[in-house]
Each structure stands twice: as structure tokens, then as C-alpha cells.
Amino acid sequence: MYLDKLTLKNFRNYQNVELSFSPQVNVLIGENAQGKTNLLEAIYVLAMTRSHRTSNERELLMFKQETAIISGEVERKLGKLKLELILSKKGKKAKANHLEQARLSQYIGQLNVILFAPEDLSLVKGAPSVRRKFIDMEFGQIDPHYLHNLSQYKAVLKQRNKYLKQIQAKKTTDLVLLEVLSDQLAAFGAEIVVRRLKFLAKLERYAQDIQKDITQSKEKLTFEYESSVTGVMDKTVEELYQKMRRYLTENSKKEIFQGTTLYGPHRDDVRFLINTRNVQTYGSQGQQRTTALAVKLAEIELMRDETGEYPILLLDDVLSELDGDRQTHLLKTIQNKVQTFLTTPSLSEVTRQLINDPKIFKITQGKVVLQEEE
């Protein structure tokens, strides 16, 4: 799959822009604060219906504008797909081939993207919430059932936490609703964890090969899922549901005391191990970065495996954060395989040698000009 055309109207600092892209590598060159990342963000929002940079969607609208429109033409194996996302202060509307989608979860997954930005290098050493977000965003694109269960889980979790606080404050003594919410949470949570384990096992296999290649077979990378509920491995959905349900029931007094839900996939984490040692704790910065790179590149193969098509890769100024060897491995991996959008202040000589016939765009204050390579 690749994005053939992109049209922006009143998005960030782009008033009216229409662009055609190469199915291979597209390089966006410009100084800071000119709009390079805004352009990548637009592609990401078109795919995911949300920004990776802000939760305040009003920031996506050009100053003093009421509506922004992102539309794109996507080439897929099954043919051309027209996508459109309308953003306003009242909400969002998503269309696929001119048909408005009843739910955003039905829309997500029609354009698959992988974003790799400097902050993704903190995937390994960052907080558990960083890894949970990574899992949920990527797996949600390739599995609508995962996305549906996650959405339902978050809604029930919010309601359950609110009710726990009401019981804590003695505004109610009725525990029947808490039991009902616990049952719903366990049901959705079991589905989420089973699907997480399935996808993580596949992702691990791809990441192991990449890590082995980058380190010349010196490092073996493995994943370890850390659940707030013990003994989740190799469990069916029903078995896991029963276990989660029991955890929530047995620990309800503790949760009431703390006013929050202590068990479930919203508390889980993934550990990355190199040669059986936790790379978060014992790994060097180089090992942590190599692991993050291996995991992100493994995503590309996982998406192809699950959807039958390669996703679009968005590289937001990430090359400057990688040394020469890792830059080389990244660029060689994506060449002639994945449509790539790469932002950079300027193209280095090394990068020019590694990228075949890139399409280069110069961006200045929201204006985009196609350049011929010098």
C-alpha cells in the first residue's frame, strides 16, 4: 500500500496544499518550525483519526478556522481507496470512498502507518504507559476486534474507577453495580490480553531476526509480558476471564481503599531482554536504541503478515538520533519495500548514497516545493 495523493485544507500551518508522492522514499526538507512534522502528522491523523502529538484536536485547525480537511488517495492491492477526515470543533467525520463511517473504529486500519520519531527511542527505557500505548496503537490498526475490545474496556474502566471513588467516599454502599462492572472489565480485558500475547509472539520473532542482524548475531532479543494478573500465558479467553474476575473480586476492598482499579491490561507491561538480561535496567544506551529500532522495524513485517500489505513508514527526524550503522540498517531495510516519508533539516551524503531516487520536497512556512536532487 502507498499514499498517492494528499490534500490538506486549514490543517496546522497548511491552508491549501495538494501533493503527489513517490511510492518509495519521500524526503521532507526544511528548518525547524516550518511544517515538516505537521505534514507527517497529517498523514498519521488521516490513518488513525487522532494525532500522536496532542490530545487537543483544536490545535490541528489553522488559527481562526472552524474546520480542517485531510484527504488522501491510497493505492492498495484491491485498488484505489479515497479517504477523507473532516475535523471541527464539534468532532470528526471519517469517509472511505465518499461513504461516511458510522464508527471511527470501522475506519481505522484502511491506511496503515508506522511512526518512528526520536521519542520512540524511549520505548525501551520509558514508562510502562509508553509501551502500552505502542502496543494498543499498532495492534489496533491490524485487528478491529482488538480496537473494539480496547475501546469498550477503557469505557468500563473509567466507569468502574468513578464508582470505586464513590464507594470510597461512602456516597454509596451498593456493591452490585461494582460486581457488574468487574464482570464486564474482566470479559474485555481477557480478550485484550490474549490478542496482545498472540501479536507480541509474532513481533518478537521478527525483532529477534533484526536484532541478530544489526548486532552480527551477538545479541538475542526476547520479550516478556508482565501482567498484573499472574499466570496469563497459554490461557484461553474463558480461562483468563475467570482469573481476572477472581482477582477483581478478591481485591475489591483494596481497590475501594485506593479508589482505583489495580488489575487488568491497563496495568500491564512488556520487558525487553538481551541475552536474558533486562535491557531497560542493564542495557547500554546503544543496546536500548538498537532494541527500539528492531521493534519498530519488526512492526513493518508484522503488519504485512497480518494485513497482506506493507504499511507506510513515517520517520520524523529520527536519522539524526541514530549512528551510522543503525542509519544504514534502517535505510537498507526500507529501500524498495515500504513507502517512506522522512523529515530532515538536510540530506547527508551518507543518506543520499543509501536512498535510491528519493522524491524531495522543500518546506518553508507551510509552502511545499518539489525539488530535483542536486
UniProtKB/TrEMBL annotation:
ATP binds at G30, E31, N32, A33, Q34, G35, K36, T37. Residues 2-344 form the RecF/RecN/SMC N-terminal domain. Coiled coil: none annotated. It is found in: Cytoplasm. It comes from the Bacteria. Keywords: ATP-binding, Cytoplasm, DNA damage, DNA repair, DNA replication, DNA-binding, Nucleotide-binding, SOS response. GO terms for biological process: DNA replication; DNA synthesis involved in DNA repair; double-strand break repair; SOS response. Its main location: cytoplasm. One of its GO terms (cellular component) is cytoplasm. One of its GO terms (molecular function) is single-stranded DNA binding. Pfam families: SMC_N. NCBIfam families: recf (TIGR00611). Belongs to the RecF family. The RecF protein is involved in DNA metabolism; it is required for DNA replication and normal SOS inducibility. RecF binds preferentially to single-stranded, linear DNA. It also seems to bind ATP. HAMAP family: RecF. This is DNA replication and repair protein RecF. The gene is recF.
